[in-house]
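To close the chapter, one final illustration. This time we ask the reader to focus less on the individual chains and more on the assembly as a whole: which components sit near each other, and how the overall shape emerges from the parts.
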Amino acid sequence: MSLYVVYVRETGHVAGAVDAVGVPGPGNAAALVGAALPLRVSTGPGEIVSLPLPAADLEVHAADEEPDVFADPLAFGVEPAKPVLTRLREWGEEPTFSPDSLVITVPVADQSRATPVLALVTGGQDLRILSGEIPAGQDAVELAITVPAGTYGVLALVAGWAGALTAVRKS
Amino acid sequence: MTGPLRPAFHEGQVLAAADLAATVSYARGAAARHARLLHDWGVAEGLELTTEDRTDPATGARFVEVSVAAGAAVDGTGREIVVPAPVVLSEAEFAEVNGADQEPTDPNYPVFLTAVDRAQPATGPTSCAGGAGATRVEESYQILFGRLGDERLVAEQRPPAVGAAPADPPVRWLVLLGYVRWTDGHFTAVATTARSVGVRYVGVRADTVAARSGTLSLRSRTSVQEGQPALVLSGEDPPTLVYGLYQGSGSVSPLMTVAANGNLTIAGSFSGQISAGSVLAASGTATDGMLLPLPAGVSPEEVADGRVSLHVHLTPRIPPTATDTVLTTPAEATVDGERRVRCRMRGYDPTVSPPQVFELPGAVEFLVLATVAAAGGRG
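The assembled structure is written out below.
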C-alpha cells in the first residue's frame, strides 16, 4: 500500500490523498488530480461551490501510512525543504470579510519571519485567488477583495497552520 | 553469359599460364560468391580503432595516436581483406584530405578500409621466352580517410552481379572502420558511430540454422561474457526456449522460459496490452476530488477509447468524530466520468443549541476492476 498526498507548493498544505495497491507510482500531481483538484464546500442547503487548485501548483509526496489524512487532508502539510508529512497546528478562528478584504487571523504570531498565505474565494461563479503574507510579529493579514453580500466558499491556507475550507458570510 | 568455367585437364595437355590462372580464378570466384551471397559483408574480426595517449612536444597539447587493430573483413564483392598487423594512422594523410576544415559541429571523420592488389616481384627461375611478370599478387588493403558525411557512401554501394568474377584489380568497396576526431592538427579521439552510421559487421544469410548438438544458442558477443544476454533453444528433454543472462560459469540464468507444453515463465514483471478476458484490479482509499488510480498496465487512453472497461465499487469512509454525540452519514459517494471521486459527509450534532447540520469533504474506499471484453479485438 502506497500513500500519495498532493500538496500546495506555496504553503505545503495537503489538499488530497490516495493510497492504493496494484497501481504504478504517479509521475506528477496531474496523474492524481487531472487538470485541477476541486475542493468543494457547502455554502447553504443544497449549495456547493468548488475551489479548484491547478495541478501546476501542486506537488506529489509519497508518505508513510497516515490514516488521519483521509479524514482531514488540510490538517496536514508537507514542508518542501524536507518532504515529510506532518500534522499542522489547529486553527480555530475562521476567516472573515471586512468591507474590502478577507481577514485571516492566526492564534500566535510568528516573531521571526513572515508567514505565506494563500486564499481562494468563490461565490459559485468567479474564482478569486488571493495571496500575501502575515508579517513577522503580527497575527493577521488583510487580503484585498471586495465582494457583494452573500455567502462564499473560502479556502484559506496559512503556512504552518491547518487549512480552512469553509463558508464565510459577507454582510 | 556463361556460368563459372571449371578448368579440366587431360593427359598430354600442354598447360599454358591461362590454364593455371583459370584454376585460381575458379576457386576465387566460388569463394567470393559464397562470401557475397551467403553472408552480409562487414568487419569479421578485429580492425578496431585503438588509441594511445600522446603529448605534442611543441605545444604540450594532449592527443592520441590512432591505430587500426589487426583483423579481417569481407567486402560487398566477396573479397576478403586482411590486415595482418596493427597499422598506425597517418595524421599527414588525414590532413591532406580534411586538414582545411574549419571547426565542424561534429568533427568525427570516417575511416575506411578497402582492398587493393599489390604485385610482388617475380621469384624463381625466369623464362627463356621472356614474360618476367609478377608471379604473386598480394591481396592487400588500403586505409582511407573520408570527408564528413562520406560514411553515407557505405550504404549506397551496390554489389556485383550474381555470377560476376572477382574484379582485377578489385573494385573499391568501402568498409567503415570507425571515426577519428580531429582537433588542432591531431587525432584526439575515436568513435564507432557518428551521425547515426556505425561500423558494420559480417552477418549470415540463412533461412534455416540447425544445431548438431541439440542446443542452439544466440548471443550478443563473440565470446561468452557474464551478464550478457543469450537465447537458447534446447532440444533436450523437455525442450525449452530460454532467454537469460550468462553467469560466470558460462551457463545461462533464465529470465524467460517457454516450456514444451507452452507454459511461459518469467522472472520479472509483465507489461503490455491486457489480454482479452483478463481482469486487473486496484484498491485503496481516496479523498474527495482525487482521480481514482488505474490498475498497473491500464492507460487512460485505453479507458477513453473503450478498449478497457472499468467497474468501480465505492464505500464511504466514515470519519472519526470529535465527540460521540455527532452523527455522520454519507451525503454523496460517487465517481464521475473522469474517475474523480465525489464524496461528502453530512454531520448532525443534536447536543448543541441550536442543533447543527454540517457537511464536510469525505473519503472513499475503492475497488477498481479493469476488464477487456473478449470481443474487443485484443488478443
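The CA atoms of residues 102 and 143 of chain A lie 5 Å apart. Chain A has a mean pLDDT of 92. With these observations in hand, you are ready for the problems at the end of the chapter.
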